[in-house]
Write a structure and sequence with these properties.
The protein is an all-alpha fold and about 525 residues long. The chain is about 75% helix and about 0% strand. The protein has a two-stranded antiparallel ribbon. Helix 2 runs antiparallel to helix 6, helix 8 packs antiparallel against helix 14 and helix 12 runs antiparallel to helix 15. The chain is globular and about 65 Å long.
Amino acid sequence: MSGPTAAADDLEDDVAQSGRLISSRWRPTTLRTAPSREDRGLFGHPRGLPWMLNVEMWERFSYYGMRAILLYFITDTVARGGLGLSANSGQVVIALYGMAVYLLAIPGGIFADRVIGPWLSTLYGGMVIMAGHICLSVPVTALSWLGIVLVAVGTGFIKPNLTTIVGGLYDDDDIRRDAGFQLFYMSINIGAFASPLLTGWLREHYGYHAGFSSAAVGMAFALVAFVYGRHKLSAFAFTVPNPVRPEERQRLLLGSIGVLVAIAVVVAVLQVLTGSLVTTVATAGLLIPVGAAVAYFVVMFRSPKVTAGEHTHLRAYIPLWVGAVLFFMISEQAAGKMATFAESNTDLRLPFFGWSTTAEAYQSVNPAAIVLLAPLVGMLFTRRAGRFPSTIMKFVIAVLIVGFSALMLGYGFQIWPGGQDLSPWWFLALVYVIQTVAELFLTPVGLATTTALAPRSFASQAMGLWWLSVAAGQGVAGFIIAQTEDISDATYYYGLGAATLLMALVLFAVAPWTQRQMADVEAATAE
């Protein structure tokens, strides 16, 4: 077609080869069909991008704002509006909540790919998140727990699919793609930076439920932008790329039920063996993502569609995946044990004009540091392309840095145990900055390497493996926290840091082997 848009009904034949256009009242009457290079709006990017940036900013505002006060809400007394759990149990819940978000991104992506497409999946996920925040805004214990579950489920549907929609704005040969994703990444960090500051202030002045209400308002803004901006998207957003065939429906349904039954059986058996609900949930939170990752690797290694060269790449990916798990095991405790340190072990008074900060504000340090440091680290990697550090050494450096940050936290808990002995305001902020440097060495590289090393027949599933590294890291953290209730936080972090540094040395030892297995990929990337 010659025009930039076409009636949606006329697209049915066009998308038949690559998927199925959804039938929904939410689908616009016209959709972009021209090459993406002809679609130019703000900053020369496709007209749909600003709306998706708004969606991502407000969705991240919603998620990180809620997460910033969640531990304090769970562990505060009922009389003060909290749920009354112990600090240890609350930290386990936070770890498992984070695990669930990333684990659920896998079925969220599959459901979009095979049933309703990325746009509807994102819309419904946003509605579920908003319902969760509304539940958390009501001072009823049962609704609070329901709200936590709803936010985790809804985020699992948004996380993989909103990124997919943004990618669909650009054709494969559109040189604006990388710049578009840089803007997308900035919108994430703007939302993540602002929300802990606001929800912390609201929590301090009006209580927890006011903070959760602001997260609901943020999600409402995201949904409004998402629905309004749908007319400016490409047909890709409303296409089911690999629709379920009629003969597959029963198998998919039975398989989904089978997974749920298997999880229920595992939980029931663990409850009988342990007799402790916290230990049961923490152990299940470890076994499920690790088991899913192992299953992914086994299926890929045994598939006849995977070539010998791709087998070599998969072997190289294993130590990288383990390194990512170690990194996320420590860094994703920002809303858990590090939040405990901010509230109970830190002097929140600032040496400026008699000001004080909130404990939640420390969770804004990471996104602020990313915005400031990402260009510098990116320039370093560009100048050092093809030389040290290689991909595996970037992982090693990241694990070393995050292990060192764990030792710092152990020292902090030991020297400043709380009460009258509080750490200076800058100590925890410094830990966050150090962890951010590690993140910049690992996360962008990990995403790029995952796509580069993935077997061609498992390109999408390989991204599931990356999400599983985040889920498994938090699952490991939750399990360890549950098993170490009787030891001090200082001992916990010293042990975690020592184990992580030891594993970093193991990764360093296997680095030459890993480098040889992926040498062809690194050479192609450096060109």
